[in-house]
Each structure stands twice: as C-alpha cells, then as structure tokens.
Design a protein that fits this description.
Blueprint lengths: L1 H22 L9 E8 L6 H15 L9 E8 L4 E4 L7 H10 L9 H13 L11 E7 L8 H9 L3 E6 L5 H7 L4 H4 E3 L9 H11 L6 E3 L6 E4 L9 E9 L7 E6 L4 E4 L7 E10 L7 E6 L8 E9 L2 E7 L7 E10 L6 E6 L4 E5 L6 E10 L4 E9 L42
Parallel strand pairs: 1-2, 1-4, 4-5, 5-6
Antiparallel strand pairs: 2-3, 7-8, 8-11, 9-10, 9-12, 12-13, 14-15, 15-18, 16-17, 16-19, 19-20
Length: 435
C-alpha cells in the first residue's frame, strides 16, 4: 500500500513539474523576433479559401517558440483598409496565438495590399504595438496574387529596413512582381501552392522563418549576384562603442573591405560584389564597456546568369494555355526569352519570342486533349542560354459533330493540305524538368 502511495505521489509531482515547465514557455535559448502575418482578407478571396489559409497559418505557428523572450506574433488583414487582428504584445503563449488566428474573421472589401504593407511597417517598428527594437523582423504575406494598389514601393521600404519577406501565393498573380517583392533568394522566400496543398510547405517555411530569427548571430539575407544584406542583433548602443564590418573573398583575405558603423546599427548592405563567389564576413564589436567576441559568417553570391526558374502552366483551355516563369537573374544581361512548344508525341514545333521585361505569354492554336513539352529559354548578352522545360496538357474540348454528307449534285470537297511533321528540337542550354 505504501509503495503504491509513493508511486502516485511521484507521478503527481512529475506531472506538476511538467505542467509548470510548459507554462514557463520557450527555453532561454529560443530565437527572438517579431513575426507579422499579412493575410488577404478581401472579397477577391472566397470564404473557403480564407478558411484554408487561416488553418494553414495556425498549423504554421503551432510548433514555433512563441512567448515572452522568444517570438512575438501579429496578424494584419488586407482589405479596403488594413485591420490589426492582434498586435505583438497581445498574446503571451503559442496556444493563445493559435486561438486568436482560428477566431479571426474575413474582412472583405478591396485588396489594398500596398496600404496594408505601409500599416505593417508601422506595426513592426512601433513599440506601442508591442514591437521590440533590435530583434529580427519577418513578414509572411499570404495572398491570391492580386492587389488594387501598388505593392513594390512599400515592400521595398520594409526590406530596406531589414525585414525578411516571405510570400505564399495560392497560384494566381504576376510571377515577376511577386519575385521582386519577396526577399532573395526567391526560391527560398516565394512559394506558389494551391490553397488545398498549403500544408505541404508548412515545415519548410517554418524552418526558413526560424533561420531568419536567429538571435545573437550575424546572418546574411537579400543575397543577389552583386550584393548581400547583413544583419545582427543590437550588441552595442550609440554611446557604448562601434562596429567594424569586414568582407573579403574566401580565396583572397588580403583584399578585405572594411566599413565602420555606429553602435546602434543592426544591418548593412554590401554592394559591388562578384557573382557566384564565396565571401568571408566578420563583425567586430569595439567597446570600452565590455568585451564582445567577433561574429563571422560565410555567404555565396548568386550566379550572374541563372534562370529562368519555376515554369508555371495555368489557364489551360482546349486550344490555349498560359506559361509563366520566374525571371532570370541578372535582368540587365538578358536579351529576351524564347518559348518553344510542341506535342510530346511528335509534331510541328512552334516558338514565341518574349521581351526581357516580361515573364508570361499565352500559347494559342493548340489541340484539345494533347500533352505538350514547353521550353522557356533565356538568351544572355554573353551569348549563353539557359533553359527550363515543363510538361503541359490541354483539356479535352467538346466533341465536334460529324459533318452532314454533301448533296450528290455538288462536287466533292477539296482534300486537306498535307501537314509537315517537324521534330521538336531539344531544349537549349541547361534544360531541366520544370518543378
């Protein structure tokens, strides 16, 4: 009897300790940062789509370390006017954030995303909204791809302030505009996915968010072929010291570039870098108040001539379909694009030329119920070409009625002209299968 009593007391004590540990929230080593969700809540989104997006956001935040001393979350709706569902300092636990997301209602109205982004900028840096100075800032924008007002300028302001921008598009929208709005590299920060398949990207997006929230560490973002943005936590103040930032090619540390920055700085953008090159970056905090260790990170710039990426087939009709693609990197070096398409089982191949500033075209004159191979090639000023292919299938159209037999008194119809069969050429350059 005493043995069973002792076991029951031990089990009760263990449960109490576990419960108290859970109530304490995230561990002290949890990443710190402000995470703002921007949801398209306008009338352009159906109630069903909004409910699936809301479910996805709840699933996304469930395992995140939310709470005091860790991540803080906020939710803003896009509509005719921006609406804050809850600020950063409203909820102090992950469960409370999930409950608030599930309880949020669609606002309807116009899709004024640019206005909502300007509002989000104020929320991310306003202490009145619970935002914290000196911590990483992340914006996750879930959209159907459309906006009634310009998105580019307010989004660029956010990125210039060091905000990492992730975009989840439910399959519609201009790929070129969304690629420019997302943080670089685009393949990590921009996701195209059907509203019923959002759960597929949850784990990958969650990991990317945590990477952007790493505290107490120098980290790189906005990586392009010629520049990189560096960010770090607030280790000093304007009165306690200054930083020396060094950058050098990995194979030539003697060619280091140095930049002195004030103690209240938390970011800097290096420009004029070489494409496809490894760089060693060092952050040296100089202070007479306390000794701080240098922080280092290695970053590799993107290739100067890469792409096109992500060939997307949409608006498929029996005799037409739309082809879109992420633009090639280094747009100043791109002369234009060529889209080649032809039936997979052989037949006449056709080509459409697209100017460098565009990233979409509509293919016409297709056959219903036919599988096609579509290849998008980018021609660079250097003379090289890069290509990416994708398969597409037109839906079967209505069956045409059999023609009535001609009257006997009329002459028989002219025989159709013979068709010339042309083999489909192989894709030029680095042809890969579209994702």
């Amino acid at each position: 009897m005493l043995l069973w009593t002792a076991l029951a007391l031990a089990l009760g004590l263990w449960l109490a300790l576990a419960r108290s540990g859970a109530e304490r929230g995230p561990p002290a080593s949890a990443p710190q940062g402000d995470l703002l969700f921007l949801l398209d809540s306008s009338a352009s989104v159906s109630h069903y789509e909004f409910s699936r997006v809301r479910e996805f956001v709840g699933q996304l935040v469930a395992p995140l370390p939310l709470g005091p001393g860790a991540l803080h979350a906020s939710l803003v709706h896009v509509g005719s006017l921006p609406h804050s569902e809850f600020p950063f300092n409203r909820h102090s636990s992950g469960q409370a954030v999930q409950d608030a997301i599930r309880a949020s209602a669609q606002r309807m109205g116009d899709t004024n995303t640019g206005l909502a982004l300007a509002f989000a900028k104020e929320q991310l840096f306003a202490e009145a909204a619970g935002a914290r100075p000196g911590v990483p800032k992340v914006l996750v924008w879930v959209t159907d791809g459309g906006s009634s007002d310009p998105v580019g300028p307010p989004m660029q302001e956010l990125k210039d302030l060091g905000v990492t921008v992730f975009i989840v598009s439910t399959g519609r929208g201009n790929l070129l505009q969304l690629s420019a709005a997302a943080s670089a590299p685009v393949e990590k920060h921009l996701h195209f996915v059907d509203v019923d398949d959002l759960h597929i990207i949850a784990q990958q997006l969650r990991s990317s968010i945590l990477d952007a929230m790493q505290p107490q560490q120098l980290h790189a973002s906005e990586v392009t072929p010629s520049s990189v943005r560096l960010a770090w936590p607030a280790l000093l103040t304007a009165d306690s010291g200054y930083y020396v930032l060094e950058l050098a090619p990995s194979g030539d540390l003697g060619a280091a570039r140095r930049q002195q920055l004030p103690g209240d700085a938390t970011g800097w953008t290096w420009a004029g870098l070489e494409p496809d090159m490894d760089y060693e970056v060092s952050l040296l905090p100089e202070s007479n108040v306390r000794l701080l260790r240098p922080q280092r990170v290695r970053v590799r710039t993107l290739p100067g001539e890469a792409g096109p990426e992500r060939v997307v087939i949409s608006h498929a009709r029996p005799r037409s379909l739309r082809v879109s693609w992420a633009p090639a990197l280094g747009p100043a070096a791109v002369l234009g694009y060529v889209v080649q398409f032809g039936p997979l089982r052989g037949g006449a191949a056709q080509r459409v030329e697209v100017p460098a500033g565009s990233n979409t075209t509509t293919l016409q004159g297709l056959a219903p119920g036919t599988a096609y191979l579509v290849t998008v090639s980018a021609a660079f000023r250097s003379g090289r070409e890069r290509a990416l292919s994708a398969k597409a299938c037109t839906p079967a159209g209505e069956r045409s009625r059999a023609p009535h037999p001609a009257p006997a008194s009329r002459s028989p119809p002219e025989p159709p002209e013979p068709r010339t069969r042309v083999a489909l050429p192989a894709a030029v350059g680095d042809t890969r299968t579209g994702r």
